């Protein structure tokens, strides 16, 4: 009996009190939330998503294990997602009601609260690179529209024709825009690096058939993206208007910091209780300053994955998921 009690206590201690500062580094990624039943029920399509999430984590792992900075890992991972037509960011972005492409992206570093973002850009191949340039090369946080495109061109960032972002699928939608098919989503990455710094980044094509220069939560610091070394790094995906109203990314950090909630408690509360789950559909990924992870969603699924390395271990722990269940890739 005593032996059993001791064993139970040890197991509990093991799960509850794993000191996350024992984690050397952590990376969490998402590729958008929404109704993923079609993908989940198609073994070929789901394999492509699992492989892409796995690759994204491996890219981050290579950089972080070598002592690279969180911002380098976040940039490399989001560039990878932006270049992959499976995701609603960069090539593969969803289209506006006019059949064009307008992209948003942001990045924030927790060590100094420095942040950069672009919104409604049309010709920057990798919007996250422009967001980073805004952060590092200007006194501003958010540039929009043609001004942001001009700034990126002046910075020597790769420019493309707006139709570069199209895929056979989105071209089909543009042809039949009246038809109610849609692709939402977004990509994001949050990191705790070996130096103990938190970084968050997000990139998106926005919401299908958006009009009038609509901008969602992704480039809004505090709504779709936030990082603060005293709390968490957060990247969101979902119906942006609701994420802006609830200042979701900052809200999570504030609950963690002031209410002393765990990252899991704060994230679950916002996604499952505070957001109107009928309309404010979506999810988020977050990592706190000690390396704890949260990745809740109130939609049927969210493309997501995490990887971390415990101090003193040679192997990393890695999992990816689409629906409710996570798998080892
Ligand atoms: N949050 C993005 C937006 O509202 C879209 C998404 O993540 O699905 O623009």
Write a structural description.
The chain has 329 residues and is an alpha+beta fold. It has one domain (24-327): 4-Layer Sandwich (Glutamine Phosphoribosylpyrophosphate, subunit 1, domain 1), CATH 3.60.20.30. 34% of the residues lie in helices and 24% in strands. The chain has a nine-stranded mixed β-sheet with strand order 4-3-2-6-5-1-11-12-13. Helix 4 (70-82) packs antiparallel against helix 5 (127-137). Residues 1-18 have low confidence and may be disordered. The structure holds aspartic acid (ASP). Residues 32, 184-186, 204, 206-207, 216-218, 237-238, 240 line the site of aspartic acid (ASP). Aspartic acid binds at residues 32, 184-186, 204, 206-207, 216-218, 237-238, 240.
* Count of individual helical segments: 10
- Average pLDDT works out at 91
Sequence of strands across the biggest β-sheet? 4-3-2-6-5-1-11-12-13
Query: How many strands?
Result: 13
What number of structural domains do the residues give?
A: 1
CATH architecture descriptor: 4-Layer Sandwich
Give me the Rg, rounded: 19 Å
CATH class: Alpha Beta
Which cofactors or ions or other ligands sit in this model? aspartic acid
What overall geometry do the principal axes of the alpha carbons give? globular
Q: Could you tell me the strand content as a percent range?
A: 15-25%
Under CATH, the homologous superfamily reads: (Glycosyl)asparaginase
Helix content: 25-40%
Low-confidence stretches: 1-18
Q: End-to-end span in angstroms?
A: 39 Å
Q: Describe the largest sheet.
A: 9 strands, mixed
Order of helix and strand elements from N to C terminus: HEHHHEEHEHHEEEEHHHEEEEE
